Amino acid sequence: MTAALDAVLFDAGGVLVLPDPTVLAPLLAPYGADTSIARHCRAHYAAMAVKSTAGAGETFWSEYDRAYVESVGVDPDHRRHAAQLLNITRTAQLWRWPIPDSMAALASLAHDGVPMGVVSNASGQIEQELLRSEICQVGDGIGIAMRCVVDSSRIAYVGDSVTMDIGGATAAGLHPVLLDPYDDHPNAEFERITSLHDLIPRFSRR
Using CB atoms within 10 A of its CB, is residue 2 exposed (0-12), middle (13-18) or buried (19+)? Predict the structure, then answer.
């Protein structure tokens, strides 16, 4: 039996929004690509599967680009050039096309009063992009109300365990920080602090 849930956090890219197919379809059409929205939606997930299988991190998208252009039917002779063009076009701001099925589900969850939030491994733009696309925002507004909308790359996660806390934070795209008050991990490659007071100067005064 599937366990009941109290709340849900969503990633943004691929879950709520996709790289805008209304831009990518005509961009790749001259290279033989299918221009249907459905084909480009499918291409994203096919490309993400290839990227994941390759173990490519957040900053490496070459596998994604090659798989994407292949999935939409770009002519084999043009795939290298089309993938390069996709790479320079698929900017962070292009992740803005609302996934219709996800939007319907969000509305249903909101109607049922389910607490929701967005934690995306973006780099500072996702809150504005979701608001601009009228998808969601923190609190009441034109989109679905969320409890929080944050970019995980700008969020620090402080823990005391390398395997559980640092490993989990890294996997989630958060900035890992180890509380190491007695310098037990002198050769660690991640950030360490000796006291939570060390964090205070990192935040701008509001």
Answer: exposed
